[in-house]
Amino acid sequence: MMTVERMERAALLGVAVAEETRRLLRLHLRPAVLGDDGKVAVDVPYPDAVVVTALLDMAAECFGERGASTEEARQVALEALLELADDGSGEAEEVARPA
Predict the structure, then answer these.
(1) Strand-strand pairing, 40-42 and 32-34
(2) Could you give the C-alpha distances from 86 to 1, 66, 69, in angstroms and in order?
(3) What distance lies between CA 12 and its chain's CA centroid?
(4) Of the candidates 47, 58, 48, which has an alpha carbon nearest to the alpha carbon of residue 16?
(5) pLDDT of residue 1
């Protein structure tokens, strides 16, 4: 397989992972809790929570994200995934910070 083809497939996989993460978060977005710091807490129940955690851990590893804690690394990875899933409509931003 040529390098260009491998890169295209990796890019498609990355977008698919980002889209699946966004889909799972949107599914469980309501009720969401807005914290004092402006961040949204979304309670994702089992078994979807296992999938979201795995996706965020994989994304953190892929993007080389580091943080003071595992949760901080996952948060940075989540922001990167939502940015990747953003198609310009602002929908990913809405998932990250609902009104």
Answers:
(1) antiparallel
(2) 29, 23, 26
(3) 15
(4) 58
(5) 63
Return the pLDDT at 98: 42
Alpha helices per DSSP H over 1-99: 3-27, 48-63, 70-85, 91-96
- Least Cα distance to 96 among 16, 25, 18, 24 occurs for 25
Q: What is the pLDDT of residues 84-97, one digit of tens each?
A: 777 655 554 455 44
Q: Compute the C-alpha angle 47/71/28, nearest 5°.
A: 40
Half-sphere exposure at residue 6, Cβ-oriented, CA atoms within 13 angstroms: 3
Non-local CB neighbours of 70 within 8 Å, separated by 6+ positions: 57
Position 42 scores a pLDDT of: 82
Looking at residue 49, its pLDDT comes to: 92
